[in-house]
Description:
Layout: E1 14-21, H1 28-36, E2 54-60, E3 63-69, H2 79-91, E4 97-103, H3 111-121, E5 125-130, H4 140-150, E6 155-158, H5 167-177, H6 195-210, E7 220-229, E8 234-243, H7 249-253, H8 258-275, E9 279-287, H9 295-300
Parallel strand pairs: 1-3, 1-4, 4-5, 5-6, 8-9
Antiparallel strand pairs: 2-3, 7-8
Helix pairs in contact: 6-8
Amino acid sequence: MEENNAFVDKRPTKSGFVAIIGLPNVGKSTLLNQILGTKVSIVSPKPQTTRFNIRGVFTKDNYQIIFIDTPGIHDAKSLFNQIMVQEALKVLEEVDAILWVMDVSHRLPEEEKILDLIKKANKPAILVLNKIDLIKKQELLPIIDYFSKLHDFKAIIPISALHNDGVDRVIDELIKILPEGPFYYEPDRITDLPLNLLIAEIIREKIFLLTYQEIPYSTAVKVEEIREEPDRNLLYIQATIFIERDSQKGIIIGKGGKMLKKIGTLAREELEFLLGKKIYLDLWVKALKDWREKETHIRRLAIPFKD
């Protein structure tokens, strides 16, 4: 008598790369984190938080979607911001589909530039109308009608990424347009972001949360050392916060070191939660004059831009 075998899914596997694009601060990173059920991309109420393309891997049943969270597309002034935007635009040439995320509560004329990029890329595209919880329902239909006439989107989906409303439909529509193909990553993989960059991004997120005006944009974080200390049952992390001018040091450190301590405490608590272990976080602050304007400095900071 034959043994009963467990059900084997014999459907062909589907996989593909999906770029998440949009203007700054429309909720791209929030959407990605919501889909994955964990944080791989930092979020902040301030625009232009994401600095480089971050991959998030979503695997379920017979499909795998590799999302690429891109920096917000904007009129860049500094060399660093120009590189950021170039990184976002390069992705459109390499992906299988595009998710355009729009903030329906804060419409801007620059949306037309995004639409032009989508048309030029000539890839299947889905328009995601985010932050629907911030507008009246009757305001939504005219927006859907307007954009449905401008481009042949595979779908136009109203969502609230923050409240996980409508996010499942985004996945459903993407599955329809994914090509057949093998998985690119192991099913339990969530991101290809190296540990040192994940740590640096979490620290930088806390700087965005706690500082104002130009300060968060003038900072970069580089993890210098990660060391397991079994005798103390912890992970030792030493990281340097770089700023552009000596005068900014005092703001990051704060009176009596209070600001630096607050940044470190918030970052350590989140990292302990994400990594599931006790952490000793050793933060230093250094000035690297005008680092955003010099390619050698940008490379020194280990920001993972492609050549």
